[in-house]
Predict the structure.
Amino acid sequence: MIFFGIISNKKDFNIIKLEIEKSIKDASIILIDKENIENLQNIKFEALIINSEINLDNKSIVFLQKICKNLKYLIVNTDKNTYVNILNNDRICIITYGLNHKCTVTASSIKEENIMIALQREIIDRYGHLMIIGEKRVKPIENLDVYGTMTIFIIKLLYLKNMQI
């Protein structure tokens, strides 16, 4: 079982969870919020996705740092939050996404019928394969914004064996 922790609003979380669990059969996706963060510190998450801002007190930040100690990937929406600096760890692969040119993953074109998602830096997937820089056209997911679509794209890129740019 692969555990993914997601900090997101509940609407986006439900859509992301449904889409990921359709594609990755052994995935377990858990919503992390300030009410349950203390109870989740003993779960060994493989990836933490921070899709939206969450206001945490100092105690909750310590719990979040504990969760991050065993991560393989930290996937952060840099347009919406500022936790990258406090969660940085040399052993974690940090993947940033958003609508700015400095992100690892960005949307280079957004249209109603499709989104061009660009991988701007090489990353290594879960299986040790190098994902090279490139773009992929994806269909928008109903009731999900571009950030949620990029979240799903990144998880699939890292965890599906045959996913290519």
User: Anything to note?
Assistant: The first strand starts at residue 2 and ends at 7. The longest helix spans residues 10-23. The two ends are 26 Å apart (CA to CA). Helices lie at 10-23, 58-68, 84-87, 146-159.
